[in-house]
């Protein structure tokens, strides 16, 4: 989900991710992770060398399904940018939190002129995205995951990078608060209601 797909789409007419989506649909329809799949022309080599070998390894694990529960929520926050929060839980404990913001599939769908070139990318993986809060978006979200797994509190972001006007990472110097934290908290509160309802029902 980086600029690689956008560049590939512009030069070859198809991005690697398009083959992924097409094959995912075929896997669901066939109820199998292995087999002969139709892929998008121009993306077959990298796809066959990455996605399919990993799928074959996962096929062996299907006889022992995970007991983990997956929760997610997505909302468009501004025109052309969607916030996406995922939480994985096992035995009543949070084992992973992932928050990202996804740019629309076409530049025409993105309102901000400064962000149009980032179409089809995620902030977390994008090399081209320049985080205004002055600390990498991926660094911020890795720190979020680490803290939530430790504290088991989705709503406690105190001390995380770019949550204040100065930050507390000495190597980063002055930072501004990332508005993504407020969006994250909004989605986390909504997702927490669903998680708590499930826990109460157990």
* Count of β-strands: 3
| Order of SSEs | HHHEEEHH
Poorly predicted residue ranges: none
How is the quaternary structure best described?
Answer: single chain
User: Distance between termini?
Assistant: 36 Å
Trace the largest sheet across and list its strands: 1-2-3
* Silhouette: globular
Please indicate the percent range of residues in DSSP E strands (runs of 2 or more).
15-25%
Characterize the largest beta sheet: strand count, sense, and whether it forms a barrel.
3 strands, antiparallel
Share of helical residues: 25-40%
Average pLDDT value? 87
Contiguous helical run count: 5
What structural class do you assign from the helix and strand content? alpha+beta
Q: What would you report as the Rg, rounded to the nearest angstrom?
A: 19 Å
Describe the structure.
This protein has 202 residues and is an alpha+beta fold. Helices cover 39% and strands 15% of the residues. The protein contains five helices and three strands. The protein has helices at residues 3-12, 16-30, 44-59, 137-151, 180-201, and strands spanning 69-78, 81-90, 93-103. The protein has a three-stranded antiparallel β-sheet. The radius of gyration is 19 Å and the shape is globular. The model has no long low-confidence stretch (mean pLDDT 87).
Q: Keywords, please?
A:
202 residues, alpha+beta
List the helices and strands and how they pair.
Layout: H1 3-12, H2 16-30, H3 44-59, E1 69-78, E2 81-90, E3 93-103, H4 137-151, H5 180-201
Antiparallel strand pairs: 1-2, 2-3
């Amino acid at each position: 989900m980086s600029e690689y797909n956008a560049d590939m789409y512009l030069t070859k007419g198809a991005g690697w991710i398009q083959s992924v989506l097409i094959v995912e649909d075929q896997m669901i329809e066939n109820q199998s992770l292995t087999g002969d799949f139709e892929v998008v022309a121009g993306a077959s080599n990298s796809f066959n060398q990455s996605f399919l070998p990993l799928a074959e390894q996962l096929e062996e694990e299907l006889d022992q399904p995970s007991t983990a529960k997956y929760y997610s929520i997505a909302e468009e926050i501004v025109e052309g940018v969607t916030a996406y929060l995922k939480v994985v839980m096992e035995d009543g404990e949070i084992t992973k939190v992932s928050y990202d913001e996804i740019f629309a599939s076409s530049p025409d769908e993105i309102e901000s002129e400064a962000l149009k070139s980032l179409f089809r990318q995620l902030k977390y993986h994008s090399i081209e995205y320049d985080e205004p809060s002055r600390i990498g978006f991926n660094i911020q979200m890795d720190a979020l995951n680490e803290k939530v797994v430790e504290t088991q509190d989705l709503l406690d972001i105190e001390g995380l990078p770019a949550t204040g006007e100065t930050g507390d990472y000495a190597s980063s110097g002055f930072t501004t608060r990332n508005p993504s934290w407020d969006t994250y908290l909004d989605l986390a509160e909504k997702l927490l209601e669903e998680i708590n309802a499930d826990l109460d029902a157990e």
